[in-house]
Amino acid sequence: MKKRIVVLGAAESGVGAAVLAQKKGFDVFVTDMGLIKDHYKQMLDERNIVWEEKQHTEELILNADEVIKSPGIPEDAPMVLKIKEKNIPIISEIEFAGRYTNAKMICITGSNGKTTTTSLIYHIFKNAGYNVGLAGNIGRSLALQVAEENYDYYVIELSSFQLDNMYQFRANIAVLLNITPDHLDRYNNNMQNYVDAKMRILQNQTEEDAFVYWADDPIIQRELNKYGIKAQICPFSIIRKEGMIGYVADGEYVINTPIAFNMEQEELSLTGKHNLYNSLAAGISAKIANVKNEVLRQSLSDFEGVEHRLEKVARVRGVEYINDSKATNVDACWYALESMTTPTILIIGGKDKGNDYTAITDLVKKKCVGLVYLGADNTKLHQFFDGFGIPTVDTHSMKDCVEACYKMAKPGDTVLLSPCCASFDLFKNMEDRGDQFKQLVRSL
Predict the structure, then answer these.
(1) H helices then E strands: how many in the chain?
(2) Taking Cα atoms as reference points, which of 115, 191, 116, 114 lies closest to residue 356?
(3) pLDDT at 183
(4) For residues 345 and 364, what is the distance between their CA atoms, to the nearest angstrom?
(5) Which of 332, 392, 430, 441 could, after both became Cys, cross-link 327 (CB 3.0–4.6 A)?
(6) Helices 114-127 and 273-288: crossing angle, nearest 10°?
(7) Average pLDDT estimate for 34-50
(8) What's the predicted TM-score (pTM) here?
(9) Which pLDDT score is estimated for 182?
């Protein structure tokens, strides 16, 4: 009798998992409490995979041998709790896909910088002529690519939610950029639960593997002592100090091993201190994978960056508009503000994830000449920021927000959308938020 796999959630990861499961001979059922996008329905229908939407039919789910859960579904969702009661194993799409490929896995996690670093590593590998796929939180799902492609390498962006349901999966190169408070609403407002999820990127690594990490992150430093790390450790810093595989000093970007590499810092295409970390992590990963120095130099200098991450939109009447909609936590906004060199009007707000805005207090007071709140409920922002003596405007739509910024800004200012919050109160997702911002700015 065929083993039965039930897939919870029918977006990119869920549908990819269903396609792979069917290809591997499983009896597959896909179920989603929301509406399934037409594109995904078509993919399922073309393969005769049974699906349902707007409901979870218990008798069709609780007879599963294994459940693949989309990362966006919380661990305490009612159906997830029922599956756990039945002791049915729950895994992630990445865990499932990893069973069916021998490709080398370059996996990137961290609270901030994941997408930029993942995209940069992929860019370097592509330029080096490697047979490589881009997956995880970015690009097409790993499972779909394992089903339909035959790559030698995968560069995978991993969120804490994906890592939560990964058990046997092994990263050949694991990159941990930083750990700062994020998604605490999903971790019972317990920071250690979130930290533990991030550290799962180390699980199953062997002496043949590499662990690339930012050596100056206090939480990572504290946590490392808890793990018997077998992999080759590759720490990096933006200051030169003993034991670093990579660092930046005296305007020079340096990687010491496995083959020495250096280039002028000003030749790096990505600017800002936060991007030095991303460029170091990517460069070290590339050198571990034997990318030639000339390819690495070229790739680090011609990478165009990531949409919605400190993306320059337009200059209108002497005012620069920057889209940093990917800044969905306070730390990401800190990096954005830290890189600002002109008086800044900051757009902030959205679905708060248990945020503590204290970390950006000094930068807001130092750099901001205006604050525009953008959210369904801006009460917490008013309570925290209104006493700073900086002009504020309360808005509840992107149209009103951009109009308020246009009125407030003077020539020489920068308008920065770096919201600190998730987007789901007013927008479909952070891309929708960034796209609306760009469209409205360009029509000013």
Answers:
(1) 17, 20
(2) 191
(3) 63
(4) 9
(5) 332
(6) 40
(7) 96
(8) 0.82
(9) 65
Q: What is the pLDDT of residues 214-257, one digit of tens each?
A: 999 999 999 998 988 999 999 999 889 999 999 999 999 999 98
- Superfamily (CATH) of domain 4-91: NAD(P)-binding Rossmann-like Domain (3.40.50.720)
Q: State the pairing for strand pair 246-249/252-255.
A: antiparallel
Please name which of 17, 329, 13 lies closest in space to residue 5, comparing C-alpha atoms. Answer: 17
Separation of alpha carbons 93 and 11, rounded Å: 11
pLDDT, the chain, mean: 94
d(CA 196, CA 182): 13
Instruction: Tokens for 254, please give them.
Output: 């340096």
Report the candidate in 300, 310, 302 with the shortest Cα–Cα distance to residue 279: 300
Q: How many CB atoms lie within 10 A of CB 143?
A: 32
Number of Cβ within a 10 Å radius of residue 95 = 21
Q: Which residue in the block uniquely carries the two structure tokens 């662990």?
A: 211
Q: What is the pLDDT of residue 306?
A: 81
Which regions of 241-365 does DSSP assign to beta strands (E)? 246-249, 252-255, 261-264, 311-316, 319-323, 344-348
- With CA atoms as reference, report the closest residue to 230 among 278, 307, 309, 171: 171
What pLDDT shows up at residue 259?
Answer: 86
The two tokens of residue 253 are 């970007």
Residue 184 has what pLDDT? 66
So where are the chain's domains? 4-91, 95-302, 311-442
| Complete edge-to-edge strand list for the sheet that includes strand 246-249 | 132-136, 153-157, 104-109, 173-176, 210-214, 232-236, 246-249, 252-255, 261-264
Looking from the CA of 224 toward its CB, the CA atoms found within 13 Å total 19
Give the max Cα distance, the chain.
71
**CB of 131 within 8 A of CB of 153?**
yes
Confirm if 438 and 307 have CB atoms less than 8 A apart. no
Do residues 173 and 107 make contact, with C-beta atoms less than 8 angstroms apart?
Answer: yes
Select 311-442's CATH number: 3.30.160.20, 3.90.190.20, 3.90.550.10, 3.40.50.300: 3.90.190.20
DSSP 37: P
Class of domain 95-302: alpha beta
The tokens for 60 are: 């069709």
